[in-house]
Amino acid sequence: MKRITLLALAILPFLGCGGLNKQTNQLKALEDCKYEITSADSISVANINVKDLIGKDKLDLVKMPRLALALLRKNVPLKARVNLVINNPTNQLAAINQFEYKVLIKNRELAGGFVNQKIVVSPHGGTTSVPIHINSNIYEVLSDDKAMDAIYDFLIGAGDNTKERKGNLTIKIKPTLTLGNKQIQYPGYITIDKEVSSKILL
């Protein structure tokens, strides 16, 4: 609620009281929404489909030279679509015009970007599905041994491969309001932190 108050103070010069109340209520409702990461698809690293790169319990070494070449070039593109479902249990309309995002696995940042899409979620249980398209160079991530280990452990696991592997997939959202010719960023991120199965990614 403190962040909503700070944002209200920031946009006060640009809005009348009615507009201010409308915007702050929509953002407050967005904070109170429930978020579900339902699936992730079309995932590729260095133009290699992740399903082809990773077997049941090991990396496919046949595909590794292409990944090694991408690392030498310091350009390892990650492409994916994460499907996010937003449910609004409040009695207020939840809405934003656009937002910045970050995607993390086990608290290690994988990618970030910007979605220029108006999102509206009706009150009283309304739901909206938001596809987040990721297109990022993850060379720096793969060059970090700790980050690489966290991702590998999540996808492959070190234990019994017959057991379902789970890990934390986090999406951080920073909404942006467009007020006339001014853009006001939300102070901080709305954090969506979910334990998901590696089957979502594989």
What class would the helix/strand composition place it in?
Answer: alpha+beta
| Molecular shape | elongated
User: What's the gyration radius in Å?
Assistant: 19 Å
What's the β-strand tally? 11
Query: What is the percentage of strand-forming residues?
Result: 35-45%
Helix-strand string: HHEEHHEEEEEEHHEEE
Helix content: 25-40%
Largest sheet: 5 strands, antiparallel
Distance between the termini: 38 Å
The total count of helices amounts to: 6
Notable traits:
202 residues, four-stranded antiparallel beta sheet, alpha+beta, 26% helix, five-stranded antiparallel beta sheet, 6 helices
What can you tell me about this protein's structure?
The protein has one domain (about 1-200). The chain is about 25% helix and about 45% strand. It is built from six helices and eleven strands. The protein has helices spanning about 1-10, 15-30, 50-55, 65-70, 140, 145-155, and strands at about 35-45, 50, 75-90, 95, 100-105, 110-115, 120, 125-135, 165-180, 180-185, 190-195. The strands form three sheets. Strands 5, 6, 9, 10 and 11 form a five-stranded antiparallel β-sheet that branches. A hairpin with a 2-residue loop joins strand 9 (about 165-180) and strand 10. Helix 1 runs antiparallel to helix 2. The two termini are about 40 Å apart.
